[in-house]
């Protein structure tokens, strides 16, 4: 029996989740924080109202993604469980040290069972938090991937605007070769179109970046859930064995508990490093 978590596997899972959550938050933030009152957007609103209206709707969904606080909240939950583990494992060490090789007293057996129950409750809280985050992320993801939703409509509107501006620029370039053409005015029009195309392409890249970042977050949250559930299974097995044991000897080795304490300290520190603003 062991309470030692697979530190390397958990760190790998958290690294993947943090990478996906960071990318998603950055892409969503770029949309949520776009200043739709700026001069550039005023020009777009006048020339391409469908792009503007779609962006207004998309900002709400993007802001909701930013507000999810995926990694910070999970890091806080890990910190809470690490604290619970230190407290409960400390009590377990005291009980096992007192018992030595003697049979556990009823009070000691009850205290050991209570410690394991507290650890399982703490792990269940990690699962519940991750499940809640997964559910919210899935709902927001559905909005992004909905073929008839605002996000897809926005992408289509931007692409249509790029295409129409490109077509207009090509027409202006053809006009340059016409007799009596006002080359200065036409040239200014071409420059304006080029600038608009660049601006719209940047916007399209931002929207597409959000779509791509959205694709992986569900799988990353699922892997995190699997990691927590595997720990629950592992700790539940230990809890069952503790309930059946009649003596302190061989139930749990103090060295194993010390190693588990160190492992959870490392996992907590690692999670806080991924999300330093978590408290």
Describe the structure.
This protein is mostly helical and 279 residues long. It has a domain at 25-98 and 108-163 and 210-274. Helix content is 84%, strand content 0%. It contains eight helices and no strands. The chain has helices at 7-32, 39-47, 49-67, 70-99, 106-145, 150-175, 183-244, 254-274. Helix 1 (7-32) packs parallel to helix 8, helix 4 packs antiparallel against helix 5 (106-145) and helix 5 (106-145) packs antiparallel against helix 7. The two termini are 33 Å apart. The mean pLDDT is 88.
Distance between the termini: 33 Å
- Silhouette: rod-shaped
From the alpha-carbon coordinates, what is the Rg to the nearest angstrom? 29 Å
Helix content: over 70%
Give the tags.
279 residues; mainly alpha; 8 helices; single chain; rod-shaped
Give the topology, please:
Blueprint: H1 7-32, H2 39-47, H3 49-67, H4 70-99, H5 106-145, H6 150-175, H7 183-244, H8 254-274
Helix pairs in contact: 1-3, 1-7, 1-8, 2-3, 3-6, 4-5, 4-8, 5-7, 6-7
Summarize the structure.
It contains eight helices and no strands.
